[in-house]
Amino acid sequence: MNRTVVAVALAALLAGCHPSRGGSARAGDLVVTHAVIPAPPSTAEASAFMVIGNRGGTGVTFTGALTTAADSVLLHRLVGGLMQPAMPVDVPAHGFVNFVPGGFHLMLEGLRRPLAVGDTVTLQLQFNQAGPLTVKVPVLNYTDAVSELPIR
Prior knowledge:
Elements: H1 3-14, E1 23-27, E2 30-38, E3 45-54, E4 60-66, E5 70-79, E6 82-85, E7 89-91, E8 95-99, E9 104-111, E10 120-127, E11 133-140, H2 142-147
Parallel strand pairs: 2-11
Antiparallel strand pairs: 1-2, 2-3, 3-8, 3-9, 4-7, 4-10, 5-6, 5-9, 10-11
């Protein structure tokens, strides 16, 4: 085995890291990482979390998302303990936006089938200054999903 691969694997093990279980995708300057859906307690709706990054020199605006797994995908933000619509969201040049519990998140409403751990949902994210970005989002148990997110 290549010594570099062994060294990297050992360093990750010693640091307590694990390979990402979240979905990721890239289209041009846009990058999605840590995309997860916690297994929902409801058969009607689910939340999706992720980080949307913009490596480009010009800001873009996230305008919505589509999926065949639900009737609609809405962007919400938790404000003062209340969920409020939050469309659109600017993703700054050379910046990112976290979609995490307690902040921005996507709500998949009208699920067309119950979601369970091990399922994958395909989301097409839409931006007004860039083309769509498609990401495959795994359904994980809540603890594993939250551990994927940069909220520690």
